[in-house]
């Protein structure tokens, strides 16, 4: 009589536990966002970025629909060009500097899939939309926080 291997059922059970323990993007996304309006001045944005210690944020219209993203880099471009062309910064607004084609992410996506998307796209933050409205944002730092929590539960 041969020895039976029970590795098959154990692996299946471990796989089911891992799937049930999956952490979604929506579990770690930031919901209380600092947003910007297209008509705001770049100076206002710079002030808000500094005061709130953030590197950028979503730009929304009056209906809370995402229309773009503005970042420190976009503001730096404005500062550089305004000095080079000797143009006052007061004349420039968010709409003229923001990135209009914004990549979003699904709030139901697994946190590890989101990490891979961050690596593939080289983006620092992804807005999360629901029915066309901005409901949150996930950053690389949020993914790192989720990974630390998972390490305590699953990694050895």
Task: Write up what this structure looks like.
- The protein is α+β, with helices and mostly antiparallel strands.
- The chain has one domain: CBS-domain.
- It is built from seven helices and four strands, in the order αααββαααββα.
- Helix 6 runs antiparallel to helix 7.
- The radius of gyration is 21 Å and the shape is elongated.
- It starts with 6 loop residues before the first helix and ends with a helix.
- The model has no long low-confidence stretch (mean pLDDT 85).
Arrangement of strands in the largest sheet: 1-2
Structural class: alpha+beta
Coarse morphology? elongated
| Tally of distinct domains | 1
Distance between the termini: 36 Å
The level-1 CATH class: Alpha Beta
CATH topology name:
CBS-domain
CATH architecture identity: Roll
Number of DSSP strand runs:
4
Order of helices and strands: HHHEEHHHEEH
Domain CBS: 29-89, 98-156
InterPro entries: CBS_bac, CBS_dom, CBS_dom_sf, Diverse_CBS-Domain
Keywords: CBS domain
Protein name: Inosine-5-monophosphate dehydrogenase
